[in-house]
Automatic annotation (TrEMBL):
The keyword Coiled coil does not apply. It is found in: Cytoplasm. This is Cold shock domain-containing protein. It comes from the Bacteria. Keywords: Cytoplasm. The keyword Cytoplasm applies. Pfam families: CSD (PF00313). SMART domains: CSP. InterPro entries: Cold_shock_CspA (IPR012156), CSD (IPR011129), CSP_DNA-bd (IPR002059), NA-bd_OB-fold (IPR012340). Residues 1-65 form the CSD domain.
Length: 67
């Protein structure tokens, strides 16, 4: 698992980017978040996730966002 934070999030389209501890950014879709709904995702929240190959490159999967 990778530790990071929500770097930005577009609630209208349910996607954003996570930034890891080394400042690497990775795309994510709200459907990959396993413990929150899109309306509850906030910039700056801590997250743990995995990275997998998606249709357009790497993306975060199995995302858990801390309360």
């Amino acid at each position: 698992m990778i530790n990071g934070k929500v770097d930005n999030f577009n609630a209208e389209h349910d996607f954003g980017f996570l930034k890891d501890e080394n400042k690497n950014k990775v795309f994510f879709h709200a459907s990959a978040v396993i413990n929150k709904k899109a309306k509850d995702i906030q910039i700056g929240q801590k997250a743990t996730y995995q990275v997998a190959e998606g249709k357009k490159g790497l993306q975060a999967v199995k995302i858990k966002i801390e309360e």
